[in-house]
Amino acid sequence: MLHESLNAFLAGDACRAEMVIARGRLVNELSALLFLKQFAQVTEDARGVTQALNLQSAVKSVERIAEHIVNLCEVVMWMVRDESVRQGARLGGFLRVLPGCEKA
After folding, report:
1. Residue whose C-alpha is closest to residue 62's, from 39, 85, 34, 28
2. At 3, is the secondary structure helix, strand, or coil?
3. What is the pLDDT of residue 81?
4. pTM for the full model?
5. Separation of alpha carbons 75 and 87, rounded Å
6. Measured between alpha carbons, how far is 10 from 72 in angstroms, rounded to an integer?
7. What 3 state SS string does 10-78 have?
8. Helix (H, G, I), strand (E, B), or coil: what is residue 82?
9. CA–CA distance, 50 with 56 (Å, rounded to integer)
10. Helix or strand or coil: residue 81?
11. Going from the N-terminus, what domains does the chain have, and what CATH number goes with each?
12. 1-13 per-position pLDDT tens digit
């Protein structure tokens, strides 16, 4: 994700930036699923609480890194297409392919 976001920034490639934004959403979804799974496991057997907390801390760090990467791609979208895709104005659905980006 980081490599692709930097390439999108350097090339001014809104299509590539949109693909990275979609992957950022996937990171958020996977993080939420992992949390729910760990929560269910810990409620059944409390012996794994320490391990679950350590894993959740690592996952939150990765999620934060992904959010910074998404922020960079949102700037690319704004610079290239003058289109705001910030938090409240994010595109609907999991992935909307921008016009001209069908092959990406």
Report:
1. 28
2. helix
3. 85
4. 0.76
5. 12
6. 11
7. HHCCHHHHHHHHHHHHHHHHHHHHHHHHHHHHHHHCHHHHHHHHHHHHHHHHHHHHHHHHHHHHHHHHH
8. coil
9. 10
10. helix
11. 2-87 (1.20.58.220)
12. 999 999 999 999 9
